[in-house]
Design goal:
15% strand; alpha/beta
Length: 257
């Protein structure tokens, strides 16, 4: 079903993980894409995959915490496609070394907030005027259940995701009159740890994490990227036309415990 036919979506962190899963589903639903990521090799691979599947995609390598990247990404959407309908603020990091407040270096705190929150502010700030020109749009942010219930030994990450939930509500209120909706997804455990964490964990540690996660989640397993991506596509698309300001929990029931 081409529910996003004729739409243009900008996805940050679009070269891997949840971002790539959303890119695949949005392209499969008819949307044209602008993918933004810092990893050039993964970005090229993702773009090539989307193109081989018949999708239309452009890519931009850049640091999402920098204003120039946001400006360039939105300008790319405008110059190539003439519009921007969907913004998926997905880029994020969660360094393993950043734990409690006394175990988190100032530089790590700043970087986490820059990548996880400032990037969404910058991208939204750049995207809203173009969305207004076309009579509206949809912004979806990647938050986390850690933004609703703080996670132990992940202070900066939890704070950043709580900020994303609040930013979502602020965007929803401020731009409703412009026909712009804003929502966020709050995943729990997903099939792999975040990309920046993966390099600091052995395969055995990652396997142990997966086993422990499955034991904690009421549904008995971790979520897949594809499952969370379906929630993102729903919030971005026409089937959620009367939904704005929502933090949609996609966690297999973990937040209930």
């Amino acid at each position: 079903m081409n529910v996003l036919a004729g739409k243009v979506a900008l996805i940050t962190g679009g070269a891997s993980g949840l971002g790539l899963a959303v890119a695949r589903q949005m392209a499969g639903s008819g949307a044209s894409l602008v993918l933004v990521d810092w990893d050039e090799q993964s970005l090229e691979a993702a773009s090539s995959e989307i193109e081989r599947s018949g999708g239309e995609v452009r890519s931009l390598r850049g640091d999402v915490s920098e204003e120039a990247t946001a400006t360039a990404a939105v300008e790319l959407a405008k110059s190539v496609f003439g519009r921007l309908d969907i913004l998926f603020n997905n880029a994020g990091i969660d360094p393993l070394r950043a734990r409690s407040v006394i175990e988190t270096e100032v530089a790590d705190w700043d970087r986490i907030l820059d990548v996880n929150v400032k990037s969404a502010y910058l991208m939204s700030r750049a995207a809203v005027p173009l969305m207004r020109e076309r009579g509206g749009g949809s912004i979806v942010n990647t938050a986390s259940i850690a933004g609703l219930k703080p996670a132990g030994d992940e202070t900066a990450y939890s704070v950043s995701k709580a900020a994303m939930v609040s930013l979502t509500g602020a965007l929803a209120l401020d731009f409703a009159a412009d026909g712009i909706r804003a929502n966020c997804v709050c995943p729990g455990y997903m099939e792999m740890v975040m990309t920046d964490r993966r390099k600091d964990l052995t395969e055995e540690q990652q396997a142990a994490r997966a086993t422990g996660a499955a034991a904690r989640v009421p549904l008995g397993r971790q979520g897949t990227y594809e499952e969370v991506a379906r929630a993102v596509v729903f919030l971005a698309g026409p089937d959620s036309s009367y939904i704005t300001g929502v933090a949609l929990v996609v966690d297999g029931g973990l937040l209930l415990k």
